[in-house]
Amino acid sequence: MVQIRIARGEHGEIVVKQQPNGIWLARVQVRDIDGRVRSVRVSDRTKGSALRRLERRLENRVDPSMTGVVADTTLEALAGIWLQHRKDHGKVRTKGPLAPQTLATYNAEIEHVIVPAVGQVQVKEVNVPFLDRLFADVEHGRKHGKYAAREGGRSTRQLRVVLGGMLGLAVSHGALAANPMRDASKSAREPRAEVEFLTVQQALHLRFRVQRQSVRVESRRMPNTDLEEFVDLLLGTGCREGEGLAIRPMDLSGFDGPLPILHVCGTLVEPRKGFVEKLHRQDTTKTREDRRLILPDRVANLLQERMHRVPPPRPDAPIFATRTGNWISPSNMRTRLRRAIERSVATGDPRDREIDGTTLHTLRRTVGTLLTHEVSLDAAREQLGHRDPSITYQHYVGKRSVAPDVRTTLAQLLVAPPSKTDGDAEEPTSPNSTKPSRVA
Length: 440
Prior knowledge:
The protein has 17 helices and 8 strands. The protein is mainly α. Helix 14 (360-374) packs antiparallel against helix 15 (377-384). It starts with 14 loop residues before the first strand and ends in a 30-residue tail after the last helix.
């Protein structure tokens, strides 16, 4: 009789027998990752406890990421395998490892939506109707995962990225014939809103509202100048908030000449539980490409003033630093700006309502919009540090209220047409011409 070979990572039939001394023995044959068959044995005082101990031993013995994804794999197990796969192999379309903060974003979607909502669904049970219902629950605000029902719903963009990657891995392992994400319904949410930016007058009003005198609260100590100087820095450079707070003295050059230069070559990474232990400076930007910016006089002067006021102890120390000399967290600056705007809006001034909802990232879009409208899209792309100009145009350039004045250019098409002079004669028609004759 032909013996059925145990699949790698699987086990045979579990046998539980009582020994002469009354102890129950549970044993099973297991084929390990290396292909060898080994015996696993567990003993206990009762039959049920021996069986449960053996099952727990088997669960902890085999790493599912080494045996691969099968049709019976649950989405919870698949999520763990896929996340480890991304840690090991990095980005999908480009080379290089995934940033810890990116992995943390994926993990948050897994922990808050996928595992609690559909974690025990098996891979073979995932189809287009199943995905459509899940996405509809999220987008229409119905209860899903750890999220309670809420009006307006949530975006499924990140959820679709994670599920698409998970099911793509299942296809490559042979657990699915095709990725059902390809045929899942598109998002039912409204199209992306217009890019939000500040006009020049709104930006000037914001700068007034974040000054020390404006944000001061009575009976409290006068605040420092961090917020107002940081807002000026972002409006004068278009840097990301993490890039602005990561500036060091060694990143500045040419301050004794006509062209002060800022070398944008790093960013601050905020803590993410399980992935980023503490706030620290990453020695690359988000796109992993540094850039050099010529600073406006106002920005160059404020950086010099800060370094003169509190000299950094080292060339690699932060210019925007806490009282203890550490990096200032971007979340700290976001909170300061939000509170300053909330206090301004409470005054009821119409100009304050115009800047309501402004974030630090709004300042970056303001720079992108102004440079595109006043200089060129390519100038905005290089200032913001984008590789693809379409990213700049789609996400960082606001719509003009009135199209630019191009009357002089269009006027070239509207000059008086040339008239035929008496000396002009019609070209004779060749007898061999193939031009068809006009039929009366």
